[in-house]
Design goal:
The chain is α+β, with helices and mostly antiparallel strands and 314 residues long. The chain is 38% helix and 29% strand. Bound molecules: cytidine-5'-monophosphate (C5P).
Length: 314
């Protein structure tokens, strides 16, 4: 039987605003999510036994049931037990290029690829909205990872409104290899500090979301105006992560001084990115930052913004 090879891109946040609490314990958010060309490769191969096995050589990627890609496959087995019985178990091989626990949705995009791949492999015929609905049961970022591109995300982050593609811009990304920020910790720390600013009534929440829709950042995206986008990048979680992780704050300052259109921490961090007008500018900033921070623990990448989510290679 056929194997499926898929490309699973990372995402960055151009915007992350925390609006309030939700009855399910998550936060009400409004975000602008953006796919980038830095991507994992996922290979899904069927086998006769019914089990799921995950293969990955990256030391920080778990191979057991805690792996989101494993959980995505398990969810498909549970929902489509007849297909599962007919087609057998699955070998999932992850070629990990996206840093782990980095605020780049690396685990989420692998899970998204598994959902898309199994839908093909088992010829289930789920539409993208149906896949997104399953994905939202596994994690807030996974629905976005399926379709990718540029989108305004609300709710927990799973309600998506795709907007214009921005694939003419580039980013330089920086992350300390040994540094990981726990997403639950970041949100919890934010709640502790800013609970008094949380909105609770539906009208105020709707109002706040519509403010983002008419914000200079969204205008900049619509106009494909890199200068404006760079100027209005925003992430509320920086308020708790940067004071706690001095290295990340220093990296952000160093990257900002090196130039580009704007610098921001992605998601709950600790990855920091600088938006750039061209690959040349991104390469220049990459060189500058590398020269200024000679720590071998710091890895830098150059990537292009991308208009695609999960893509099947074969
Ligand atoms: O949905 P996901 O599993 O990716 O979220 C990881 C954690 O981030 C959640 O357990 C929660 O602590 C926090 N989170 C949140 N509100 C959101 C999304 C995530 O509080 N909208």
């Amino acid at each position: 039987m056929k194997s499926y090879s898929l490309l699973a891109p990372a995402k960055i946040n151009l915007d992350l605003e925390i609006i309030g609490d939700r009855p399910d314990g998550y936060h009400q958010l409004v975000m602008i999510l953006q796919s980038i060309s830095l991507a994992d490769h996922i290979l899904i191969t069927p086998h006769k036994a019914q089990n799921i096995t995950v293969h990955c050589t990256h030391s920080q990627v778990p191979l057991d049931q805690s792996n989101l890609a494993y959980r995505a496959a398990k969810l498909m087995q549970e929902h489509f037990s007849e297909h599962s019985a007919e087609y057998g178990g699955l070998d999932i091989t992850i070629e990990k290029n996206i840093p782990v626990a980095a605020g780049l949705a690396g685990g989420s995009t692998d899970a998204a690829a598994v959902l898309v791949g199994i839908n093909q492999l088992w010829e289930i015929g789920l539409t993208q909205p149906e896949l997104c609905s399953l994905a939202s049961q596994l994690g807030s970022d996974i629905p976005f990872c399926i379709g990718g591109g540029t989108a305004i995300a609300t709710g927990r982050g799973e309600e998506l409104d795709p907007i214009l593609d921005l694939d003419h811009l580039f980013v330089v990304l920086g992350k300390y290899e040994s540094l990981a920020v726990s997403t639950p910790w970041a949100y919890q720390a934010y709640r502790q500090q800013f609970l008094d600013q949380y909105l609770s009534d539906q009208d105020s929440i709707k109002n706040r979301i519509s403010q983002t829709y008419s914000s200079p950042l969204v205008k900049g995206i619509m106009e494909k105006n890199g200068q404006k986008i760079g100027q209005f990048l925003h992430n509320d979680l920086e308020k708790v992560v940067l004071p706690e992780y001095g290295q990340v704050a220093h990296l952000k300052e160093t990257m900002k001084k090196a130039g580009g259109l704007g610098t921001l921490m992605s998601g709950s961090g600790p990855t920091v990115f600088t938006l750039c007008e061209s690959q040349q500018e991104a390469d220049h900033i990459h060189t500058q930052v590398k020269a200024q921070i000679s720590d071998p623990d710091l890895t830098l990448w150059v990537a292009q913004l991308s208009s695609t989510g999960i893509t099947i290679n074969n």
